[in-house]
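<context>
A single protein, sequence plus fold
<sample>
Here is the protein in question:
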Amino acid sequence: MRYLHTMVRVKDVEESLDFYCNKLGMVETRRKEFEEDRFTLIFLAAPKDESRAKEDLAPELELTFNWDPEDYDVGRNFGHLAFKVDNIYELCQHLMDSGVTINRPPREGRMAFIKSPDNISIELLQEGDSLPVAEPWASMENTGTW
């Protein structure tokens, strides 16, 4: 398992980039726009991690900007921790066998969400390409929130 990023939701991209980049000294490594889902992801790295982050070898801060305005209550602006895993199906089965609820199953063989005992959302992402779609994951419903 490898730690990937921490995600926080932001209300104002420019104000956030000013804080994290201009004031704190982080560096933007990449940006992704999702027009259909109406949000933008901006990934930042510490200056000494910039080259490794661009190769997906160092942890990053993920800023998520939802295009539709939203007031984030305490904790809503924090999104999740993320980890790449060797085999998402095996890990999810192990977690379920250990009593952990899979809040968002890896239906497409690529992504799942669980929560810590303290209600922290954790994203699990398949290393490399998505695994072939398989049961019971393909037909498993979401449970709760993530």
Notes: The mean pLDDT is 91. The helical segments are 13-23, 50-54, 88-97. The domain at 2-66 is CATH 3.10.180.10 (2,3-Dihydroxybiphenyl 1,2-Dioxygenase; domain 1).
